[in-house]
Automatic annotation (TrEMBL):
<keyword id="KW-0963">Cytoplasm</keyword>
<dbReference type="GO" id="GO:0000921">
    <property type="term" value="P:septin ring assembly"/>
</dbReference>
<dbReference type="InterPro" id="IPR053712">
    <property type="entry name" value="Bac_CellDiv_Activator"/>
</dbReference>
<dbReference type="GO" id="GO:0030428">
    <property type="term" value="C:cell septum"/>
</dbReference>
<comment type="function">
    <text>Activator of cell division through the inhibition of FtsZ GTPase activity, therefore promoting FtsZ assembly into bundles of protofilaments necessary for the formation of the division Z ring. It is recruited early at mid-cell but it is not essential for cell division.</text>
</comment>
<keyword id="KW-0175">Coiled coil</keyword>
<dbReference type="GO" id="GO:0005829">
    <property type="term" value="C:cytosol"/>
</dbReference>
<dbReference type="InterPro" id="IPR007838">
    <property type="entry name" value="Cell_div_ZapA-like"/>
</dbReference>
<dbReference type="InterPro" id="IPR036192">
    <property type="entry name" value="Cell_div_ZapA-like_sf"/>
</dbReference>
<keyword id="KW-0131">Cell cycle</keyword>
<dbReference type="GO" id="GO:0000917">
    <property type="term" value="P:division septum assembly"/>
</dbReference>
<feature type="coiled-coil region">
    <location>
        <begin position="71"/>
        <end position="126"/>
    </location>
</feature>
<keyword id="KW-0717">Septation</keyword>
<protein>
    <recommendedName>
        <fullName>Cell division protein ZapA</fullName>
    </recommendedName>
</protein>
<dbReference type="GO" id="GO:0043093">
    <property type="term" value="P:FtsZ-dependent cytokinesis"/>
</dbReference>
<dbReference type="Pfam" id="PF05164">
    <property type="entry name" value="ZapA"/>
</dbReference>
<keyword id="KW-0132">Cell division</keyword>
Length: 128
């Protein structure tokens, strides 16, 4: 994307930003910063604009770092879930193979049983 100029207003000061982000996104960022600065100024009207900007930056950076920590935890949890799903899939495949083997064994035993029943029937006819 090509860089473009976007006009924003933060704390009643207009800024021209050069960005490759969409104007809508940049306006959302500016609105967030403006709201945060207003909240801080509301709590202490005697803060300078520079001090308000620094406190706003600290608060936003704090949230960013906390969210990065949350995101890292979610990534680890997702990785564990994916590994568990893979293990479960492998176990399922092993169980399917086991079921097939048991079906084969059962089929062989059924054939053997049929042969034995035939033999038994034959023996009974000869004796009877």
């Amino acid at each position: 994307m090509e860089n473009k100029k976007v006009e924003v207003k933060i704390n009643n000061v207009e800024y021209t930003l050069l960005t490759n982000e969409s104007e809508e996104y940049v306006q959302r960022v500016a609105l967030l910063v403006n709201k945060r600065m207003a909240q801080i100024q509301e709590g202490n009207k005697q803060l300078s604009t520079a001090m308000t900007a620094v406190l706003t930056s600290i608060n936003i950076a704090d949230e960013l770092l906390k969210n990065e920590g949350v995101l890292d935890n979610i990534r680890l949890e997702l990785k564990r879930y994916m590994e568990e799903a893979q293990r479960s899939g492998e176990e399922l495949e092993a169980k399917k193979l086991e079921v097939e083997k048991l079906k084969e064994d059962m089929h062989k035993l059924q054939i053997e049983l049929a042969k034995k029943e035939t033999e038994l029937s034959s023996v009974r006819r000869r004796q009877g």
